[in-house]
């Protein structure tokens, strides 16, 4: 593929760049990372009007060549030919929003001044018309000196014209100038002048984005609408996922059953059935919930509501030294901290970003739910506390709330100690409301599913196999159980000394070891620890519940819940933190402070509950 | 006749022209970001909405774009409101 000419798609954030890229390439996209940085490289293939194939790459949105984030640096370095792992593009497809010309032309002028063959896509021309804007394309072409094509990315308008124009642009001489050093204010004023000259008519229509904002950002209605959306979202994550989760569980146990019949009993079969299939199955089961949550997040982002939510939340987050910028990553962390931590890249201020990364694991991710569900089911009576509110649901809500409050307190402490810095403000473009487009949502979900499954297939597979080995070797001698003789069993005995003061017994200590890979593994590890051999899952759950009731005191159970609110038991989160912070220092700190919090919280819960006579 | 006020004091839905920005009162990163969002002397701005607590942050139209900024930053922007 690398022998084909390269076309890079560049433009401001919110110019509709990715929608245009999706329209040009369809589903055949490759997502990779640029070497050394955690910026995604999305590429695809396109056949030009003359039949020549080209590679087309979607660069991160940027406001100017004066880069202020890792994403913008990649965009700058690619168009300057300085990006490691990327060749200098043969042509640029520059996307500008027709309804926001005066702003987008500034970056466009910087790009055109570089001297690479460039084609301008004048995108969202339909919205410009709706806003009563008429743009003289010929005048714009004259001023910019490059071809300008009117496009509507979501309706495939302008594809052929773009292919035609790119055919002409590729092969044209690259007259590279130093570029990017021009006087920013001068360029900005030139952009405004060109925009004013090219805008023929501007009817005074009241834009419906403004009308919608009057409701959505209303001081009273706004927060109510926001709360309602959050409620529906979390409700859907749990309600809609039940059927697909059951299907995945059936598939995993069918695969386990097939392996059991096909293979002779032995170490290899145990490795495949109890190690690989059980471990990966336990994680893949979260795919439906994660995809449902991402569906909502992608919808909120593509409609433009997400920025409004950040606007509504900014003041609250300012109280703990954060801003509305941190809202989006933290919301994603309710599905899974890994994409949440990756989403912090949009936060410019490094200390602000670091704080957000460090508190992201405190948002209750979907992996904690199986643990919470089994303990609540066993120890909290299913009775009502009045007003139709169940006690079990109330406890679950309390656990979510404890995580959120813990995160806010942690942010406050971090921002006034190790991540102290000026209060970076909240400055954010509020894009127009737009109808979400099915193609972009489906593509986004597909790419996230792939990323998640790839991780389940690598990190999680390897770690579950290692943990399986720790639990299975050395083989027990006569009179010993497999667990006691195993390396993990011995580790648990050592761990138990530390855990005893907070009410944890040997089996809990043992379960915490494999749960290091992923929290939900604690449930199956407890089942193993209590030697439950039950093929039928409902019966297995029932018998685990009765075992727990018989062997744990209520203070121990509550302490166990408190532990999981804080404990950073997730290798994927640690790995992504290491990648995003470029080293072991911050993941190390994250592990230390969260384990300390977990220990204190579990201990306090245990002793308070004990003294209260529970 | 026109009245010069700071952007944070400008009533909602009153278009005004930016006369001066205290760029030096902002950090270089903040100044660059505000410029990237289209702020400059001479552009038209209009406060549209305020956040639910203390009407902070502000949603401000700058040119053709709507931008969220905090009141603390709006204080550095002087505008001329034509009555």
Task: Quickly list its features.
heterodimer, A: alpha/beta, two-stranded antiparallel ribbon, 10 strands, elongated, B: about 80 residues, alpha+beta, 2 helices, about 15% helix, about 45% strand
What does this structure look like?
The complex is a heterodimer of chains A (614) and B (83). Chain A has 614 residues and is of the alpha/beta class. Chain A has helices at residues 17-25, 70-79, 101-113, 125-130, 137-144, 159-169, 184-198, 208-216, 221-239, 242-262, 267-284, 287-303, 305-318, 327-332, 337-342, 350-359, 368-379, 391-416, 438-472, 482-485, 487-499, 506-512, 521-529, 537-551, 554-566, 571-581, 585-611, and strands at residues 6-11, 29-33, 40-47, 53-58, 91-97, 118-123, 133-135, 148-150, 199-202, 428-430. In chain A, β2 and β3 (40-47) form a beta hairpin. In chain A, α3 (101-113) packs across α7 (184-198) and α25 (554-566) packs antiparallel against α27. Chain A starts with 5 loop residues before the first strand and ends with a helix. Chain B is α+β, with helices and mostly antiparallel strands. Helices cover 16% and strands 45% of the residues of chain B. The longest helix of chain B has 9 residues, at 28-36. The interface between A and B is large, with 43 and 33 residues. β10 of chain A pairs antiparallel with β5 of chain B, so a sheet runs across the interface.
Task: Give the SSE map.
The complex is a heterodimer of chains A (614) and B (83).
Chain A: E1 6-11, H1 17-25, E2 29-33, E3 40-47, E4 53-58, H2 70-79, E5 91-97, H3 101-113, E6 118-123, H4 125-130, E7 133-135, H5 137-144, E8 148-150, H6 159-169, H7 184-198, E9 199-202, H8 208-216, H9 221-239, H10 242-262, H11 267-284, H12 287-303, H13 305-318, H14 327-332, H15 337-342, H16 350-359, H17 368-379, H18 391-416, E10 428-430, H19 438-472, H20 482-485, H21 487-499, H22 506-512, H23 521-529, H24 537-551, H25 554-566, H26 571-581, H27 585-611
Parallel strand pairs in A: 1-4, 1-5, 5-6, 6-8
Antiparallel strand pairs in A: 2-3, 3-4, 7-9
Helix pairs in contact in A: 3-7, 5-7, 9-12, 10-11, 11-19, 12-19, 16-18, 17-24, 17-25, 18-25, 21-22, 22-23, 25-27, 26-27
Chain B: E1 3-6, E2 16-21, H1 28-36, E3 44-53, E4 56-62, E5 65-69, H2 71-74, E6 77-81
Antiparallel strand pairs in B: 1-6, 2-3, 2-6, 3-4, 4-5
């Amino acid at each position: 593929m690398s022998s084909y000419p390269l076309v890079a798609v560049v433009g401001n954030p919110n110019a509709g760049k990715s929608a245009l890229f999706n329209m040009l390439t369809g589903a055949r996209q490759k997502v990779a990372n640029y070497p050394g940085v955690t910026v995604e490289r999305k590429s695809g293939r396109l056949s030009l009007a003359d039949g020549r194939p080209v590679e087309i790459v979607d660069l991160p949105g940027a406001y100017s060549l004066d880069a202020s984030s890792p994403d913008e640096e990649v965009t700058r370095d690619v168009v300057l030919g300085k990006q490691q792992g990327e060749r200098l593009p043969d042509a640029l497809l520059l996307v500008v929003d027709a309804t926001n010309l005066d702003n987008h032309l500034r970056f466009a002028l910087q790009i055109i001044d570089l001297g690479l063959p460039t084609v301008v896509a004048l995108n969202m021309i339909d919205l410009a018309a709706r806003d009563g804007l008429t743009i003289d394309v010929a005048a714009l072409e004259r001023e910019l000196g490059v071809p300008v094509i009117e496009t509507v990315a979501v309706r495939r308008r302008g594809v052929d014209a773009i292919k035609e124009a790119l055919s002409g642009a590729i092969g044209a001489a690259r007259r590279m100038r130093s570029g990017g050093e021009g006087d920013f204010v001068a360029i900005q004023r030139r952009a405004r002048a060109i925009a004013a000259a090219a805008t023929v008519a501007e009817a005074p229509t009241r834009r419906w984005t403004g009308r919608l904002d009057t409701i959505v950002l209303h001081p009273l209605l706004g927060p109510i609408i926001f709360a309602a959306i959050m409620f529906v979202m979390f409700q859907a994550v749990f309600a809609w996922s039940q059927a697909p989760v059951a299907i995945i569980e059936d598939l995993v146990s069918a695969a386990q059953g097939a392996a059991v019949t096909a293979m002779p009993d032995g170490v290899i079969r145990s490795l495949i059935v109890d190690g690989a299939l059980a471990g990966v199955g336990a994680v893949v089961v979260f795919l439906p919930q994660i995809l449902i949550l991402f569906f909502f997040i992608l919808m909120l982002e593509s409609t433009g509501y997400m920025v409004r939510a950040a606007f509504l939340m900014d003041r609250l987050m300012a109280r703990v030294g954060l801003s509305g910028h941190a809202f989006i990553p933290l919301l994603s962390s309710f599905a899974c901290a890994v994409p949440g931590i990756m989403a912090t890249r949009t936060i410019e201020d490094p200390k602000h970003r670091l704080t957000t990364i460090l508190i992201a694991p405190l948002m209750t991710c979907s992996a904690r739910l199986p643990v919470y569900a089994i303990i609540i089911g066993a120890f909290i009576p299913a009775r009502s506390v009045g007003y139709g509110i169940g006690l079990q649901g109330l406890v679950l809500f309390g656990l979510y709330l404890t995580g959120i409050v813990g995160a806010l307190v942690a942010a406050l402490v971090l921002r006034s100690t190790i991540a102290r810095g000026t209060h970076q403000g909240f400055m954010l473009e509020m894009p127009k409301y737009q109808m979400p487009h099915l193609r972009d949502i489906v593509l986004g979900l597909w790419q996230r599913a792939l990323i998640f499954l790839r991780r389940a297939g690598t990190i999680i597979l390897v770690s579950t196999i290692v943990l399986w080995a720790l639990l299975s070797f050395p083989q027990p001698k006569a009179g010993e159980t497999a667990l006691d003789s195993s390396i993990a069993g011995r580790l648990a005995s050592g761990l138990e000394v530390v855990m005893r003061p907070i009410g944890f017994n040997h089996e809990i200590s043992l379960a915490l070891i494999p749960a290091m890979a992923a929290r939900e593994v604690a449930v199956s590890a407890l089942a193993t620890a209590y030697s439950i051999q039950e093929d039928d899952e409902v019966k297995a759950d029932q018998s685990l519940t009765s075992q727990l009731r018989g062997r744990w005191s209520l203070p121990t159970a509550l302490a166990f819940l408190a532990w999981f609110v804080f404990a950073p038991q997730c290798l994927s989160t640690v790995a992504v933190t290491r990648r995003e912070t470029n080293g072991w220092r911050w993941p190390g700190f994250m592990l230390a402070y969260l384990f300390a919090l977990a220990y204190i919280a579990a201990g306090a819960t245990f002793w308070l509950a004990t003294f209260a006579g529970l | 006749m026109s009245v010069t006020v700071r952007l944070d004091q400008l009533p909602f839905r009153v278009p005004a022209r930016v006369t001066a920005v205290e760029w030096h009162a902002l950090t270089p990163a903040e100044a660059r970001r505000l410029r990237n969002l289209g702020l400059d002397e001479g552009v038209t701005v209009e406060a549209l909405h305020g956040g639910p607590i203390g009407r902070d942050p502000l949603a401000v139209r700058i040119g053709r774009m709507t931008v969220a900024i905090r009141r603390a930053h709006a204080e550095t922007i002087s505008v001329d409101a034509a009555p």
